[in-house]
Model the fold of this input.
Amino acid sequence: MNQKTLIGLAVAALIAIVVAIVLNQRSQPRSEGGTQTTYLAPELREHVNDVSKLVVTGAENKVVATLERGENGWTLAEKGGYAVDTGKLRELLLKLADTTLVEQKTANKDKYAVLGVEDVDAKDAKGLKIELGGLAQPLALIVGTANARGDGSFVRRAGEAQSWLASTALNPPKTAADWLKKDLADVPATRIESVAITHPDGKSFKVAKAAEGDANFKLLEVPKGREAGSEFTANGLASTLAGLRFDDVVPAKDAAPEANATKARYAAFDGLVVDATAWEKDGKHYAQFKASLDAAQADKGIAAAQTRAKEDFDTAAAAAEAAKASKDPQPEGAKDAPIKPLAVSDPAKDREQRLAAANKEVADLNAHFDGWTYQLPAHKYANIDKSIDDLLKPVEEKKPAAAPAKKK
Done:
């Protein structure tokens, strides 16, 4: 290879390197500080905890959600001041703080709609405007559609012409209901002693367990001539309060029970009682709840719990004594005397603490229940709306008697 060829190759390589550098620089966002990384919301980076208000606005400048931080934490104005899911809120704020600008997109307002970053006063605007209050300088961003590759979002700072591809798929909740803290109650079926349901026509029925350790609920007072059906349905009634979440919420004063409301009472072995009033309206399912404590049942439940604690302690103590007397090798700690639980060492104080915990649970539940009407998922409402026929075996239709054979 001669010298001219070598020089030519070197020049070509140099040109290729220069072109690559230029193209790379053009693909990087411009930053005022001259660095390669530019954050979407630099003013938020060290001030996430300073945010005291977040407003989400959609098409036609309609406010979707107004989240405000007050004495009772974060609440949602559009839902009467109900509690916000702070996990969702913090997730969005942290994403906004960490998001970087990857690539410049259009600065032509006539092309904004392709990316969903047009001003939200447009009737068919696809994006959402996010405004943050509480910072030294208010921050407003328009979050458009997601990148087709799913690894980012198109964004534009409100008031600026330049749009960008951002590094994070932001996806802020798009409705007020999506911002709500939807966990309502979690009383497992294993705690429930009975469920009584009364329909607006006065017809009622009750399922119950005779003992806390029973596997299944039984239908009480089976109508004459009928048989109880599958225990699966009866057991399902007691699961209503387990992992109970709602779809939406309305102040109780704005959504009172209908005349066709069904009543349900859930009574636990430990004295907790939850009363529900549920109804259907315009294809949606609503309910109001109230918690209370049955003092007599609470005393009975505490006594039973203390008895179990004593039995467990006596069993463990006997096992430790047997281990001491045994000449066989024992696992480490087998000979140690068990520590007396409070139910054994001081039953009165134990009872006081258990009763205080029960009353606190009632107060905590009513802090959610009082003053609100909840829209329930269909499967939870279905458990409240069951009739006694749903718990009975179907009536077998009697076949007509065969006609007597004609004499020949």
Residues 295-325 form the longest helix (31 residues).
